[in-house]
């Protein structure tokens, strides 16, 4: 009997030590890194990832605007008195918002099923359980403003982001379908389904792309003794990392009163509201996925 008690105490001490070791470095107890293994998780690696995303998106903006406007100009030049339907973009800008959200969570749920020596009249079993969790959230936001005039480069070298390293972000080297939005608005005017956008009106174009990746792992070590089973039901330890990279682009007329450094107030308000809505949606989606 003393040997069994000593063995049980040894198992208990080992489980407590294992719990302590796993909890300290576990996800949810420190500020999450923007990148993860096998990518560079250092500060330099995080900055490389952010700059790769910014450069890649800027290249796609430049390429989309240049192709859409150049195509419209060629069409107009081939028709006598051809109308340039993309002319409104000359006084427009693009507000670009990047949001990087990282949620890391660790849960530990040790349990034990005790089976004392059976009595003659009844059988007694005792189940013990303990659970604890830690969660950490990191949100990085960045806003950049471009004018369409700066992005339109019909005669300049083509912006090429094919050499950018993703470093864990799907916003890099991915067709963001920006041309579809611009083509769609111009075609609506060409077909007579809408008038030309006019400055000062609620003429705003918005494009949003969100990539979410979730990685999780769990472990359930089990010890079976004569009078007890440790961790009979899993998982004992689980950890997850939920990463969302969100891109919001709002096109609208530039505000001349502000020196052309921002969109008109209506477009800016639309951009701000879209960011709030996106944040609520991403938060709800992350909560549901966990």
Report on this structure.
This protein is an alpha+beta fold. The chain has one domain. The chain contains five helices and eight strands, in the order H-H-E-E-E-E-H-H-E-E-E-E-H. The strands form two sheets. It has a four-stranded antiparallel β-sheet with strand order 4-1-8-5, with helices on both faces. A hairpin with a 3-residue loop joins strand 6 and strand 7. The chain is elongated, with a radius of gyration of 29 Å. The two termini are 44 Å apart. The relative contact order is 0.19.
Write a brief structural summary.
With 290 residues, the protein is α+β, with helices and mostly antiparallel strands. The chain has helices at residues 2-23, 43-77, 148-151, 178-190, 265-289; strands at 92-108, 111-114, 126-129, 132-147, 205-219, 223-224, 228-230, 237-253. The protein has one domain.
């Amino acid at each position: 009997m003393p040997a069994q008690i000593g063995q049980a105490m040894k198992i208990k001490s080992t489980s407590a030590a294992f719990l302590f070791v796993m909890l300290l470095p576990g996800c949810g107890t420190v500020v999450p890194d923007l990148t993860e293994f096998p990518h560079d998780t250092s500060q330099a690696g995080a900055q490389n990832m952010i700059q790769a995303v910014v450069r890649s998106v800027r290249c796609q903006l430049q390429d989309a605007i240049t192709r859409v406007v150049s195509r419209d100009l060629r069409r107009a030049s081939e028709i006598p008195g051809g109308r340039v339907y993309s002319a409104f973009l000359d006084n427009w800008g693009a507000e670009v918002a990047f949001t990087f959200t990282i949620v890391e969570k660790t849960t530990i749920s040790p349990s034990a099923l005790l089976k004392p020596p059976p009595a003659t009249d009844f059988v007694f079993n005792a189940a013990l359980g303990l659970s604890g969790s830690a969660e950490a959230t990191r949100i990085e936001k960045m806003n950049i403003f471009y004018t369409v005039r700066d992005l339109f480069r019909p005669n300049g070298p083509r912006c090429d982001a094919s050499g950018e390293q993703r470093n864990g972000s799907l916003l890099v080297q991915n067709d963001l379908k920006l041309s579809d939005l611009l083509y769609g608005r111009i075609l609506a005017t060409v077909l007579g389904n809408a008038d030309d956008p006019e400055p000062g009106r609620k003429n705003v174009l918005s494009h949003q792309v969100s990539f979410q990746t979730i990685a999780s792992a769990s472990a359930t070590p089990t010890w079976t003794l004569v009078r007890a089973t440790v961790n009979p039901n899993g998982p004992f330890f689980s950890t997850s990392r939920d990463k969302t990279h969100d891109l919001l682009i709002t096109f609208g007329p530039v505000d001349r009163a502000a020196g052309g450094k921002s969109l008109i107030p209506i477009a800016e308000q639309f951009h701000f509201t879209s960011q709030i809505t996106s944040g609520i949606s991403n938060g709800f989606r992350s909560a549901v996925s966990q």
